[in-house]
Write a structure and sequence with these properties.
Elements lengths: L11 H7 L4 E6 L5 H14 L7 E5 L2 H14 L10 E2 H10 L1 H7 L11 H9 L4 H17 L12 H16 L8 H11 L11 E4 L7 H10 L4 E6 L14 H9 L4 E5 L1 E2 L4 H11 L12 E2 L7 E9 H17 L7 E5 L2 H13 L4 E3 L9 H14 L4 H9 L7 H14 L3 H10 L8 H18 L4 H8 L8 H14 L4 H13 L10 E4 L11 E5 L16 H19 L13 E11 H7 L6 E2 L2 E3 L4 H5 L8 E2 L1
Parallel strand pairs: 1-5, 1-6, 2-3, 2-4, 4-5, 7-8, 9-14, 9-17, 10-12, 10-13, 11-12, 13-14
Antiparallel strand pairs: 14-16, 15-16
Helix pairs in contact: 1-2, 2-3, 4-9, 6-7, 7-8, 9-10, 12-23, 13-14, 15-16, 16-19, 18-19, 20-21, 21-22
The structure holds a DNA duplex (15 and 10 nucleotides).
DNA sequence: GGGAGAGACGTTTTT
DNA sequence: CGTCTCTCCC
């Protein structure tokens, strides 16, 4: 199919696909078809003979990357098989892994898992003011990098931060690892310091989706990769919801100033949503005063008005039961479960909803699924597998060696590390010597005991006949803590066969950190508003629309300006949520939006969700309707009691 | 190094 | 309300 198939030459999508400007910005509201336009642009490039390897489509998640690939294959575009959408993170890791880059950066791109951070924190807490403070300092370190603060004039590190950073980097060097938040900055530093690097000329065309979600470091990497490349960025400042990773709406707004002469294109026709929802969304987002250029969405009359329902319940329990009953009724009336999307800003609401639906025998999938690595037993097995693959993996060894200690045996481990650094031996070799008595160090009896267990466990794994039995041993059938990871490991084995332990570990890691979202959806989906970005559904339900949850209360100690920014981001989050609704009148799916909230919830729940109740009554917190409900304006129906 | 008791704090999310 | 962290003491 030719790239321009069915595209009128005067349409914005045609302009986007065909623009030959070396710099193009596309601002595209929710449901306006930006993925479609971007796909056509890639198709045009490929059809014009641009080599697939010279095109870099950057997407925010792996799901989006696969989506692009699948659709291009569906169009039968020549060369699209070689075209691979990547996330910036995976691109950075790949580039850092190249030999010449490794030599230049003197850091090892082995990213630390969440749980592997714990021994690091314990090792640094003594010198840097306790666990909590170390966590704060670490976040500040990553935040400074994400914002490229080092580049800002007048930036100076406080003595405390400088001392912490020195120790942190020394720990990471010794353990041959990297913080996840360092991966992009390390690539940035490398590219910045090496203007002649081949990487800076690797691509002729760069396309970035969801640009508003990139932080400064990520934007900087794109800049450094585009010496010789045409760049097309696509996004929407009104959907910027990732300030916690230091992205903010000004990124895409300011891009035009840094790229003078760029094409500035836009998509404003909301093809997805029913008109009533579009009007509500416009009314809501108008309350964001910091938008330099308000860009209302155009409603498409052909979509029809749609159905909108706003319901207040007396208690959270009734709200949960009410939503579950509503969903069950819809399904009984022939709505496919896969058409229903339930959004809740907190798992404390999402999980009871999930349970209620399951109790009603509704096929439901929850996407809150906390990491398969949350249980200690799972972490232990995972670390063992890593050592099974590579005895010299220092992070896994450090974790396992401290596992039974109070603070990860920080006191003893300090002496092990000192010995390693003085003698040039690796931690594995030093522990082997400690174990045999060839070396003795004070306070290390706990570590030696753990090390004996590690060695024994690895020996047991080594004598097993194949990887299937290794998986059985590490993640035994019937053990609760490792049930999910076992399932993933088994499906990985099915794919790769019973050969290479290294491949098993690598595939297992990606499967855990970037879970698949099935393309064929047959279940009701329950998830957070963040996760819903990029999705759409004929029936969208947002539960828990109360002050304190949506919008969430700002943290203490913020300036008035920061509080205002926080509120605007919360509003964008709600904006993203309500614009998931998809109208398909010809398929007799008008597009249904349901917003629910309740008057009270148990104080315990309120506290655990982060609401500090202003008033309570008999152990119940009194709740108030989200201000965003009011801000939906006149197009919204009057709320009803449930 | 480890246990008992007092005090702080609580969420959402990506790689 | 429950869990995690810190401090104090043995």
């Amino acid at each position: 199919m030719p790239w321009s198939d069915g595209l009128g030459p005067a349409t914005p999508a045609y302009e986007i696909a065909s623009s030959a400007n070396a710099r193009v910005r596309v601002v595209a509201g929710p449901g306006t078809g930006k993925s479609f336009a971007m796909k056509r642009r890639v198709a045009r490039l490929l059809e014009n003979g641009v080599d697939a390897s010279a095109i870099l489509p950057v997407t925010f998640t792996r799901v989006a990357a696969e989506d692009l690939h699948r659709e291009l294959v569906g169009m039968g575009v020549p060369g699209c098989d070689d075209l691979e959408g990547v996330t910036l993170h995976s691109l950075a890791l790949r580039m850092l892994m190249r030999n010449h880059v490794l030599g230049a950066t003197s850091r090892v791109p082995r990213a630390l898992n969440m749980f592997e951070l714990e021994p690091l924190i314990c090792d640094l807490m003594g010198a840097h003011g306790g666990k909590k403070h170390v966590k704060v300092l670490r976040m500040a370190y990553e935040a400074a990098w994400a914002r490229l603060q080092h580049q800002q004039p007048g930036y100076a590190l406080a003595a405390e931060d400088a001392a912490f950073q020195a120790d942190l980097i020394s720990w990471l060097r010794f353990h041959e690892a990297m913080l996840i938040g360092e991966v992009i900055p390390q690539l940035y530093q490398y590219l910045d310091a090496n203007p002649a690097a081949v990487e800076r000329q690797e691509f002729a065309h760069i396309l970035v989706d969801e640009y508003q979600d990139l932080n400064r470091a990520e934007q900087g990497v794109i800049d450094l990769l585009s010496d010789t490349a045409d760049v097309c960025i696509v996004g929407d400042d009104d959907q910027s919801i990732y300030s916690f990773k230091h992205a903010h709406p000004d990124g895409i707004r300011d891009w035009l100033n840094a790229n003078v002469g760029a094409d500035d294109l836009g998509l404003d026709d909301c093809r997805r949503c029913p008109t009533q929802v579009v009007e509500m969304a416009n009314s809501l987002i108008q309350n964001n005063a910091m938008r330099p250029v308000p860009r209302p969405l155009n409603p498409m009359p052909a979509n029809g008005a749609g159905d909108v329902l706003i319901v207040q319940y007396r208690t959270l329990a009734l709200e949960v039961a009410g939503v579950a009953a509503l969903v069950s009724d819809m399904i009984a009336n022939g709505v496919p479960p896969g058409d229903i999307l339930v959004l809740a800003q907190s798992r404390a609401i999402g999980t009871p909803l999930y349970e209620a639906l399951v109790a009603n025998a509704v096929p439901t999938k929850s996407y809150y699924a906390e990491s398969e690595l949350s249980a200690m037993d799972a972490q232990r097995a995972f670390a063992l597998l890593k050592l099974f693959v590579d005895r010299q993996d220092r992070v896994a060894l450090r974790w396992l060696a401290g596992i039974d200690g109070n603070n990860w045996h920080a006191a003893g481990y300090r002496r092990v590390r000192e010995h390693c650094e003085n003698t040039g031996t690796s931690p594995w070799d030093t522990m082997t010597q400690l174990e045999s008595g060839a070396v003795s160090l004070p306070y290390t009896s706990g570590i030696v005991a753990s090390f004996r267990d590690i060695v024994r466990a690895l020996e047991e794994l080594e004598v097993l006949p194949g990887l299937a039995s290794v998986v059985d041993q590490l993640f035994p059938d019937g053990q609760d803590a490792t049930r999910d990871i076992r399932e993933i490991a088994l499906s990985v084995l099915e794919e790769i066969g019973d050969n290479d332990r290294e491949v098993l570990f690598r595939e297992l890691s990606t499967a855990i950190s970037q879970p698949e979202i099935p393309i064929e959806i047959e279940d009701v989906r329950i998830m957070s508003l963040h996760k819903s970005k990029g999705l759409s559904a004929p029936v969208t339900i947002i539960a828990g629309c109360v002050q304190g949850l949506l919008p969430r209360a700002p943290e203490n100690g913020l300036t008035p300006a920061e509080r205002a920014q926080h509120l605007e981001e919360q509003r964008r989050l709600f904006y993203v949520g309500i614009t998931r609704v998809k109208a398909a009148p010809q398929a007799r799916k008008p597009g249904t939006l349901v917003l629910t909230y309740s008057q009270e919830m148990p104080v315990r729940d309120a506290l655990s969700v982060g609401i500090t109740p202003a008033q309570q009554r008999y152990g119940s917190a009194i709740l108030h309707a989200s201000q965003f409900i009011r801000e939906l304006g006149l197009a919204a129906p009057r709320p009803v009691a449930g």
